[in-house]
Amino acid sequence: MSGQMSVDKRAKVELDILYRISQALAHQHDIPALLNEVLDIMETEMGLSRGTLTLRHPDSDIFTIEASRGLSAEEKVRGRYKLGEGITGRVAKTGRAELVPDITKDPHFLDRTRVHQQKQVAFMCVPIVHQRRIIGTISIDRPVAEENELKRDLRFLKLVSDILAEALSAIREQVAERESLLAENRRLRQELGDKYQLSNLVGNSGSMKEVYGQIAQVADSMATVLIRGESGTGKELVARAIHFSSSRKNNQFISVNCGALPENLVESELFGHEKGAFTGAIQQRKGRFELANGGTLFLDEIGDIPLSVQVLLLRVLQEKEFQRVGSEKSIKVNVRIVAATSRNLEDAIKQGDFREDLYYRLNVFPMHLPPLRERKSDIMLLADFFVQEYNKVYGKNIRRISTAAINMMMSYHWPGNVRELENCVERAVLTSLDDVIHGYNMPPSLQTSEETNTAMLPLEGASLSGMVGAYEREIIIDALKKHRGNAAAAARELRTTQRVMNYKIKQLGIQPKNYRT
Hints:
Layout: H1 7-27, H2 31-46, E1 50-56, E2 62-69, H3 73-78, E3 80-82, H4 86-94, E4 98-100, E5 121-130, E6 133-143, H5 147-195, H6 206-218, E7 225-228, H7 235-244, E8 253-257, H8 266-271, E9 272-273, E10 285-286, H9 288-291, E11 296-300, H10 307-319, E12 321-323, E13 330-332, E14 336-341, H11 345-350, H12 356-362, E15 365-368, H13 379-394, E16 400-401, H14 403-411, H15 417-431, E17 436-437, H16 444-447, H17 449-452, H18 464-482, H19 487-493, H20 498-507
Parallel strand pairs: 7-14, 7-15, 8-11, 11-14, 16-17
Antiparallel strand pairs: 1-2, 1-6, 2-3, 4-5, 5-6, 9-10, 12-13
Helix pairs in contact: 1-2, 1-5, 10-12, 13-15, 18-19, 19-20
């Protein structure tokens, strides 16, 4: 410290410096800001003419100046040190503090920043060590003084570096953890974007191709979309495809099922509430509109929303602003609305259950998703897709679906649409004991003509021999498919002779050559 002072006064100054540095450590969580504040304190209380704090680059042996006093931006950039390079590099390598009483008399002093220019000053440098690893250095210039005074300053500087070491390491860990979480968040968003890309929707039927074209048309606009279709047709998948095909894909996609919310909570869920707005509102809460700001809000089953909330929803669509429950302050939002319903909104309007003006606000770009029974050509594409998905989930290796199971799926009327098909395939994958989904792996609703409104076996009243023949035919075709039309291999699998197999093939009118590819 500059000038002579009593031991007591010096101890008081040092304690004050340490107290102020500890206060800085408590409230600063940014490394450059913390280091600059520490140098401010030391400049004011110790009278240092110049000071630098270097930090080691992660996974390298390069030390660069992170904070300084008395250096210009250009001089600071020049302050880069390798291990063992100059006094700073030597301290970084050995972990031992160094004191130069007069820099003009020391040949090791590099003056890398070019600010000293043969000035007669003392230079001291101490390492910042955390868990035996040198993570940085502190160095200061001060006027030349007696050796005892300089050594005391050096000891005090070591104490400051010890205090800083733990804090710097903790901040770096927090920053690394935050960056890791952000990277993971970006990765998950990328996966979501990939999963819900337009190219990942399954279906080649004409009606689905029309849906793909509509998604491409509307994705990058601000137009409100109303998706119509029966329950289970995949309305939310289409809504996500619209979001992830738009410029909003890096922002939030928030989904809310209006039909699943209690009537007295719908307003709070959508618009949020203030603390004390109603019984149980113990703290302020953001609503779905606020959370989706900059992104897309998907309102599923919009036809079930109460009339009282429909008025508020209409205002948001018109004015792009709303108020939290219990607040008079308006909040502006930039949200893209995609709504969906399985109800007939036109009938609901006639019955007074749905506002006509809200309907026209929502119906800017209508889309219709066809039921599965109207896109039969997509059934096997979807089934194969779900087989692959649930192979991963359950660790199975299902390679194909038997003819009997295919017939069942193609004949069924699928009242639950794609969702019901997915559930059926999941059950079949789970219950299969080999690499094939058989007819008996299908749920009972697909196995009985009463449930399917179809005739899976010969017509009612068929003879026992006719029904047994139909069953034998399915089993033999299944075995021939597995062995690519090889009757001998099929006979071995079914534990019969080739002679019997050939007899049955001829009797049942089966053509093995059809299964050789």
